[in-house]
């Protein structure tokens, strides 16, 4: 069965520092990959996604993620953290075939940004 | 468009009580979902409905029932609430764009079972 692992349940960075949130998936066939963000007391919203083509994908609010097939990874980065980036981030996958209609989520990483 | 709406926002129940969480979407999506979110466990799928008239179990269906009332509405029922069902519940709907599944989430219902 497919699974998603997010390394680090909590990440803390200084404002202006690099943000790196890690995500690895288990699949023999590269799935579609997503990052969602959840601000306090809100639902999840899509940050970015990888389907095919360019392995570096850009999302909203200056975030980007790189798909690395050899490492089965899809890490999320942002060059310079802002206080407003404090939120919980979820990596998710969906298989490519079988008309599969569900997402599998990682456990989430809570990002704290301090002055 | 309101997107995905959920009611109520908060609820406190006593063990053994029943309640129904309501969800509606105005995006004309075929598929709808119910998740629960617990600390350190991400989102876990309770039930989903691929289209009007169909429902299927997800990862954690025990203790829940669902009804896909029409294309817009998908409700989640707890027949006899237990403290283990204390959680945040999210409803979502999805569309497939160029073969890619995109899910849209409601704001959540926070449930406390005493």
Note poorly predicted spans of chain A: none
Query: What order do the helices and strands of chain B follow?
Result: EEEEEEEEEEE
Please identify the oligomeric state.
heterodimer
Overall mean confidence score, pLDDT of chain B = 93
* Structural class label of chain B: mainly beta
Please outline the major beta sheet of chain A: 6 strands, mixed
Largest beta-sheet characterization of chain B: 7 strands, mixed
Overview of this structure, please?
- The complex is a heterodimer of chains A (115) and B (114).
- Chain A is mainly beta and 115 residues long.
- Chain A is 0% helix and 54% strand.
- Chain A contains no helices and 11 strands.
- Chain A has strands at residues 3-7, 10-14, 19-26, 32-38, 44-50, 56-58, 64-68, 73-78, 87-94, 104-105, 109-114.
- In chain A, the strands form 2 sheets. In chain A, strands 2, 4, 5, 9, 10 and 11 form a 6-stranded mixed β-sheet that branches.
- In chain A, a hairpin with a 5-residue loop joins strand 4 and strand 5.
- Chain A is globular, with a radius of gyration of 14 Å.
- Chain B is mostly beta strands and 114 residues long.
- Chain B is built from no helices and 11 strands.
């Amino acid at each position: 069965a497919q699974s998603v692992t997010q390394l680090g349940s909590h990440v803390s960075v200084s404002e202006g520092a690099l943000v790196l949130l890690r995500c690895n998936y288990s699949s023999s066939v590269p799935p579609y990959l997503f990052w969602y963000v959840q601000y306090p007391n809100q639902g999840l919203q899509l940050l970015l996604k990888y389907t095919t083509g360019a392995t570096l994908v850009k999302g909203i609010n200056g975030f980007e993620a790189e798909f690395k097939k050899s490492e089965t990874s899809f890490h999320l980065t942002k060059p310079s953290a802002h206080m407003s980036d404090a939120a919980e981030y979820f990596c998710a996958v969906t298989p490519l075939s079988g008309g599969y209609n569900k997402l599998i989520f990682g456990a989430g990483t809570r990002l704290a940004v301090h002055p | 468009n309101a997107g995905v709406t959920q009611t109520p926002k908060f609820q406190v129940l006593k063990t053994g009580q029943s309640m129904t969480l309501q969800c509606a979407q105005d995006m004309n999506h075929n598929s709808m979902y119910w998740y629960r979110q617990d600390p350190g466990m991400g989102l876990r799928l309770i039930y989903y409905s691929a289209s009007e008239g169909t429902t299927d179990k997800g990862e954690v269906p025990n203790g829940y029932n669902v009804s896909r009332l029409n294309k817009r509405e998908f409700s989640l029922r707890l027949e006899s609430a237990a403290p283990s069902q204390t959680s945040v519940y999210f409803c979502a709907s999805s569309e497939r764009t160029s073969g890619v599944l995109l899910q849209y989430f409601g704001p959540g219902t926070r449930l406390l079972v005493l």
